[in-house]
Design goal:
Oligomer: single chain
Function: Phototransformation of protochlorophyllide (Pchlide) to chlorophyllide (Chlide).
Shape: globular
Radius of gyration: 18 Å
Organism: Arabis nemorensis
Structural class: alpha/beta
Order of helices and strands: EHEHEHEHEHHEHHEEH
Family: Belongs to the short-chain dehydrogenases/reductases (SDR) family. POR subfamily.
Strand order of the largest sheet: 3-2-1-4-5-6-7-8
Bound molecules: NADPH dihydro-nicotinamide-adenine-dinucleotide phosphate
Pathway: Porphyrin-containing compound metabolism; chlorophyll biosynthesis
Enzyme class: oxidoreductase
Length: about 325
């Protein structure tokens, strides 16, 4: 049978390119879990995916109710779940004030981390039930959360501190930042990516042996053309792609990045659990090192426990 992969945020950028790459193999049915139904449907058609290779289902990660609703709707289709890809993200580098999810969490961490945290916890049960030979859960990470890299050292740097802001609800009353500091949209995004990478490792430690599920994260390269940078100033959007192409040489096309993520979904040689994958300039994959904070097991455990409380699992 075909494998079934759920991809969040498959309506543009990396998620769409991955959906397309998987559909093109003829071996996958992709559930495009998206907040904008019409946009997702149009996106799938624009890249030439055929009807039988995908289903669009509504998911707004900025609402925990919507996450639960999505899980119910997915279960009602009675399809197996073989791979979950947590890909969607918001980035608000120029926001002066925080905005908030339906439950009142700062939007970047609320969407990128807490929405995916609840989704992955609920869907783990479905993954366990699948009889697919290589079941995987992938959470897209980023170099920007890794302070052991050049890109990760561009201020403001990611830093979760002692999680005091998250523990106090991340609702703007005490703080809207995980470390309890003043709001900074670029930092909130980087912090959320550190959470994604910590969550992947904590899932691996807690569930890999018991379930056989492969947990992985990745940095697909700098996909400087995606919608992620839509809220950045126009000059940045103009100069960022050529800067990445010719100066840092970290640039990767959406198509190439989609192929990389599709490898993490289905390539037998990328089946190891607990790994953060990256690619060399010649497009060969390797197991990359995470920064001290993004691989801190104690912080991962604490993040897990605080997140469970916020999303109502504890
Ligand atoms: P895009 O902005 O193109 O894609 C993000 C996707 O997330 C869109 O489909 C968007 O939906 C969706 N999304 C945003 N908010 C929500 C929500 N509340 N509920 C459901 N879906 C939502 O960016 P990219 O493709 O670049 O980003 C994809 C992933 O890649 C992210 O995890 C990002 O952190 C990561 N990444 C990107 C890099 C890059 O250089 N671009 C580098 C490293 C990592 P909609 O279409 O409706 O807006």
């Amino acid at each position: 049978r075909k494998g079934t992969a759920v991809i969040t945020g498959a309506s543009s950028g990396l998620g769409l390119a991955t959906a397309k790459a998987l559909a093109d193999t003829g071996k996958w049915h992709v559930i495009m879990a998206c907040r904008n139904f019409l946009k997702a449907e149009r996106a799938a058609r624009s890249v030439g995916m055929s009807k039988e290779d995908y289903t669009v289902m509504h998911l707004d990660l900025a609402s925990l109710e919507s996450v639960k609703q999505f899980v119910d709707n997915f279960r009602r289709t009675e399809q197996p779940l073989d791979v979950l890809v947590c890909n969607a993200a918001v980035y608000q580098p120029t926001a002066k004030e925080p905005s908030f999810t339906a439950e009142g969490f700062e939007l970047s961490v609320g969407t990128n981390h807490l929405g995916h945290f609840l989704l992955s916890r609920l869907l783990l049960d479905d993954l366990k039930k699948s009889d697919y030979p290589s079941k995987r859960m992938i959470i897209v990470g980023s170099i920007t959360g890794n302070t052991n890299t050049l890109a990760g050292n561009v201020p403001p740097k990611a830093n979760l501190g002692d999680l005091r802001g998250l523990a106090s609800g991340l609702n703007g009353q005490n703080s809207s930042m995980i470390d309890g500091g003043d709001f900074d949209g670029a930092k909130a995004y980087k912090d959320s990516k550190v959470c994604n990478m910590l969550t992947m490792q904590e899932l691996h430690r807690r569930y890999h042996e018991e379930t056989g599920v492969t947990f992985a994260s990745l940095y697909p390269g700098c996909i400087a053309t995606t919608g992620l940078f839509r809220e950045h100033i126009p000059l940045f959007r103009l100069l960022f792609p050529p800067f990445q192409k010719y100066i840092t040489k970290g640039y990767v096309s959406e198509e190439e990045a989609g192929k990389r993520l599709a490898q993490v979904v289905s390539d037998p040689s990328l089946g190891k659990s607990g790994v953060y994958w990256s690619w060399n300039n010649n497009s060969s994959s390797f197991e990359n090192q995470l920064s001290k904070e993004a691989s801190d097991a104690e912080k991962a455990k604490k993040l897990w426990e605080v997140s469970e409380k916020l999303v109502g699992l504890a």
